[in-house]
Amino acid sequence: MHLKKNGVFSRSASAQRRNHSRVLIIGAGASGYAAASRLMENGFYDLTVLEAEPRIGGRVNTVRFAENIVELGAEWVHGEVGNVVYEMAEPLELLGHNAAKRDFNSHMDFVWSGGALAERAEIELLLNTSQAIRDAVDVDPALASYTGSYGEFFLDKFNQKLMALERRPPAELVDRFLGWFEKATGFYDGSDTWFNTSGRGLLHYRECEGDLAITWKRGGYRTVFDLLTKRFPNPSQELPVRRRVLLNSEVAVIRWAEREATSRPKPPIVVELSNGARYTADLVLVTVSLGVLKHSADTLFDPPLPQRKMNAVRNLGFGQVNKLFMYFSDPWWPSGLSGYSVLVTEDDLEAFKRKYPQYGSMGHWVHGLSGFYIDQHKPSVVLFDWIVGEPARVMERYSDYQIMMGCKDWLDMFLGQNFTIPTPIGFTRSMWWTNKHFKGSYSYRSLDSDRADAWAAHLAEPILDRDGEPAVLFAGEATHDYYYSTVHGAIESGWREADRILGSLK
């Protein structure tokens, strides 16, 4: 029994043995850190956090670049009302409402290969039509009973609106714009294609009211870990979570053998690492990504996970979104521009393949580029783009130099007749797919989720021992019913499981 002495949970004699903790947390991302912080806030310190990476943060990864920072993972604070990140950071004046981001589309040009710009009025018509459909998703009564994909739903609505126009944009422009808009949708939803995203599944997601593109004034998203542990604004009040984190500690197997109801004391759960180390605990909180569970759950848990949980692991969607950043010594684009979106034809792709066969030797990825946009942290020198799905996975097979030069050649194809495009002086990117500690970016609701009746609540269910008490618990953005794919959802899930642990220990 874990007794509370002077308001603080005290370590029992058995817990003082080497490599034993009452609670083991697997993963030092937003949910794992949030859980550890909540436990310590309530006087519980008998915990260890095992992190496979050589850093804390998980899918929050703020890095130095171009004399500033870029976010290789989470970037924006999405909304204000009910967003726990906003509630922690805004009173401390750490956040900025980025007017340039809100006006992003109005300062963006759409360009054909060869440098011709699409007619602005026609682009605005297509953008406004598309965004109106997207914005109305959560209030559209037809979606609740819809059984198809979001792509089918969107195109149906789009074509209806287009047919009602007296003057329609050229068919080629409409077709190429829709190709671009599908990519842009993928950046938000994470799905390889909007034909795999569940239409009615979008109703599960809940947006926080307010500005959806809030940025950090300084320090980047990694600042959220200082807020969780109270290191900011007063370091003297810091909760010692960091001291309980063991980096480079990749978990190989969690042995959670069912415990006999009559067994007292209960045998501990055994967690074995890839390096041969062995840890034991009374409770284990798993916060690894859904991507890791999809690729490793069969071998990670002994005995295997219950059928309903494995159904959720296999059928909830988990997407692949990467970012890439190019650093130039000087801007070569007009001031006031937010970036260029490219209108790509099949002829463009074939021409690029013929001219630059080296970029397709292991599979083509350039067709996944939607354009190049000016990073708001350094608007004078950095261009970035998102890339989603299979092209994002293929991109990770190539070296940084190959990707950088491929992006430059792609830029030349679309803008080389208008500008002299220099070779970038710096390049960085995310690589979430090939990193076995993530295996992707964030979760979404897929058609498979609908067919299999797979829900985040199933993923969040704890594994109980034979006494009906929690043994292995689960947190992470994919376990949140309606804030999945977000940092605030990950944090809330960590707090949820910390509260469950505290209730169990009582």
UniProtKB/TrEMBL annotation:
Pfam families reported in the protein's UniProt record: Amino_oxidase
Lineage: Eukaryota, Metazoa, Ecdysozoa, Arthropoda, Hexapoda
InterPro entries according to UniProt: Amino_oxidase, FAD/NAD-bd_sf, Flavin_monoamine_oxidase
GO MF: polyamine oxidase activity
Protein's name according to its UniProt entry: Amine oxidase domain-containing protein
Residues of the Amine oxidase domain: 31-502
